[in-house]
Amino acid sequence: MSRLAGRPWHVSVGALAAGLALAQLEAPLSLAAAAIMLACLACARAPVLAVIAAAMLIAGSAAGAARLDALDHASTRVGDGRSVSVRAHVLTRARPSAFGASAEARIASGALVGTHVLLRFDGRGGSALPGRAAIGDDLSLAGRLRRPATNPDASFDFAAHLRRRGIAAELLVERVRLSGARRGGIAGALDSLRRRAETAVAAGLPEAEAALVLGMVLGEDEEIDTSTRDDWRDAGLSHLLAVSGQNVMLLMALALPMLVAAGLGPRGRGLALLCLVALYVPLAGAGPSLQRAGVMGAAGIAAMTLSRPSSRWYALLLAAAVTLAMNPRACGEPGWQLSFVAVAGILMAGRPLAAWLRRMAEELSPQRHAALPHALRDGLCEGVAITVAATLATAPLLAYHFGSVPLAGLAANLLALPAVAPAMWLGMVKAALGVASPVVPAAEELAELLGPLTRVPIAYLDALAERCATLPGGSLRLPLHSPASVLAAYAAITALLYAPRLISIRPPRRARSGALELAASWRRSPRSLRAAVSALVTALLMLAAAAVLAPPAPPDALTVRFLDIGQGDATLIQDGAGAAALFDGGPPEARVYRHLHAAGVRRLDLMVATHQSRDHQGGLAEVVERIPTSLLLENSDGTKDRDFRRLLAGADAHGIRRLRAQAGQHLRVGRLDIEVLSPAPLPPGTPRPQDPNPRGVAAIVSVGDFDLWLSADAESDAILPLALRPVEAMKVSHHGSADQGLPEVLERLRPRLAAIEVGAGNSYGHPTPETLAALRAAVPHVYRTDRDGTVTLTVRDGHMAITTER
After folding, report:
1. pLDDT per residue over 653-698, tens digit each?
2. Can you tell me the distance from the alpha carbon of 480 to that of 181, in angstroms, rounded to the nearest whole number?
3. What is the C-alpha separation between 778 and 365, in angstroms, rounded?
4. Are the C-beta atoms of residues 750 and 726 closer than 8 Å to each other?
5. Is the model more confident about 302 or about 199?
6. Distance between CA atoms of 139 and 144, rounded to whole angstroms?
7. Residue 414 is inside which H or E element, if any?
8. Region of residue 224 (left: phi > 0; alpha: psi -120 to 50; beta: else)
9. Which of 380, 421, 402, 97 is nearest to 236 (CA)?
10. Which of 170, 197, 580, 772 could form a disulfide with 434 if both were Cys (CB 3.0 to 4.6 A apart)?
11. What is the pLDDT of residues 522-579, one digit of tens each?
12. Contact 251/289 with Cβ under 8 angstroms?
């Protein structure tokens, strides 16, 4: 307490930040907090400071309340259910989902001018956001307003989330068109710079990698698909996909070795990094999240470069006050909390850990005359220390908000260190070239040429995230359900960090002597021996990492995986001898190829596109691009669908043999025998049916005495005329839709296991209660991917074993 009394600026700014955060509470609670602070500081014999701090807390609470009133004023003008026709400026890129898309916008006409809204597009009729729409574009909209309301039965308070972002209402869009105009002023100038930067960043990169670089460099993560996002989150790398304080901190830390190697001192490094942040934040859009990133990044730079710990903590407190002054509700956002706690963790543990690592490195390998190795060593120690400190500091909050802690996160972040800096810097160079393209000759061409080079670190990071996310035991389920449990977790971490200092634990004298003698002996040993031992240890560590991160081997027994890819179908069959067949690939956003990699698939012997439907064939085009495939059994059935034609063109471009699916075919794939029962050929001159579902590929896949029934979206009216026979397992048709003839189908198939491939919370009501009742009455084991995750069926020595993800 006496140390606080000697730091009046820290106490005052901290009290201001606390008051801003408390503005969301009732006024008596803020006054109670002020009274407590006054009493504590008075006990510390600092009565004047106590009065100032209490006044700052009350002033912060009042200012925060005024700011909240200003933010909430727009919502009072919104009539729930009111139909409007307005113009609006796009503020974010559209975020797609299985059932539409959403984007933030600010209304630019009428009585609601200036109101921040969330546009909702269902993709039907004229309600789809035009593909050319970019941030700052002017839209003419017609739709219905909906004021956010809290759903007490929901696990996530979406209304509170919108309020924290300053969004006053949702606008359910019925009609939309681009007006051709754009917003003006400073915001319009930044929009123009951003558009050029986006184009340059994406130049020369495939769509998936371009989305990752845009997220890492410009904070635009809307185009990153859900599967990729989940992998990066489960691997502990999600902070890299959006510009945040922690992200900027990591970028600055990784830039340090180059600045140290250039001979800059601490102050020079700090100034250079501050200039970089000042250039970077406006280029990335200067939105609310990026403003926080800039302030947090500046605080982090101060933490790394200023010599006095008090100055570093003051910078962090000032960052908190500035961000809360802009939006007092920001402290409720997981991103703000993680950014703030990460920086605090670095202040508390990062620098001491970096100093300890440097001492250890100097003890093991003194370099008195080599400046570059010394600089690289110090930079590496700094990067490792910051990564460890930030990972440890954010673990309780991750458990609180997401219910789990990525145990693989520390290893993933350490392994990512060599690639993050090149990916960030190459992306920023490309963005700078885009901004400068009007005045720099050949800037666009150079950005295009940098694309393949940028893809190397991005592809490495993506593969690392994919592998670490699926490591056995890579994630620990640790739901912390209350703020009290989070505080308890941080108290435990603090005790572990400071307990040795408090109780002055010292190793026995003999142990200390032995350690000193061992270190001295190591330093006296020949340099060649030290180099050889260091190389051997490094090689062993690399081999161990390669063994852990290597893709899994394919199974050694017949394995069927009913893949959890959302609302869609994807079934993988591996014969246990190296052959693999994939029936359908789900929607494109499911990124089914990742599931194949996780299952040890290095090559597909057969890919089946059962019929034209986005949730069945949509993900196969990317599989064609990424996984070698021998044969495509396709059921285009005369479709003109653009995505299906793209799949066929991609197969032709990669030299994949194509075969039209037809009843009566028998295919042999490794140990798999595949009998195709439908579709029957269409008679000449017969027009293509409007509904492709009844003519989807239906087949029986057999290995020995095991038979598997697959029927895509074909239901009983199309299935019952076929030559059915008893099977051991089946995939339920059409995601468990209502089908009156299903009991008769089950009576003829008599399966012991049935799996429903269906997406959680889908708008179709799949699976229906009638279908579930029929399955329970006839099938001993019924699974569904929306609740069980991927369902894996293994057949060994005639016995079936079933495992689920959840």
Report:
1. 999 999 999 999 999 999 999 999 999 887 777 777 788 888 899 9
2. 48
3. 70
4. yes
5. 199
6. 15
7. helix 409-435
8. beta
9. 402
10. 197
11. 666 676 666 666 667 666 666 666 665 666 788 989 999 999 988 899 999 999 898 9
12. no
Give the whole-angstrom CA distance, residue 212 versus residue 454: 11
| Rounded CA separation 612/605 (Å) | 21
Domains, the chain, in order of start with CATH, read 2-76 (no CATH), 83-183 (2.40.50), 209-501 (no CATH), 558-681+692-804 (3.60.15.10)
Question: Burial level of 3, CB count in 10 A (0-12/13-18/19+)?
Answer: exposed
* Predicted model pTM: 0.68
Token pair belonging to 138? 């002017």
Residue (of 54, 52, 59, 107) closest to 84 by Cα position: 107
Kindly state the tokens that stand for 324: 């809360």
**The pLDDT of residue 2:** 47
Flag the least confident range among 154-158, 226-230, 618-622: 154-158
Tokens of 132: 């050319």
Peptide bond into 767 cis (omega under 30): yes
CA atoms lying within 13 Å on the CB side of residue 310: 9
What count of Cα atoms within 13 Å lies in the side-chain half-sphere of residue 435? 18
- CA 512/CA 514 separation, integer angstroms: 5
Region 325-349: mean pLDDT is 79
Q: What does the pLDDT look like over 120-175, one tens digit per residue?
A: 887 655 556 666 677 888 889 989 988 877 665 555 677 777 877 778 888 888 88
Q: Which residues does 767 contact at the CB level (< 8 Å), separation at least 6?
A: 732, 735, 736, 737, 756, 758, 784
Alpha carbon 563 to its chain's center: 20
| Amino acid 764: pLDDT | 85
Q: Cβ distance 430 to 454 under 8 Å?
A: yes
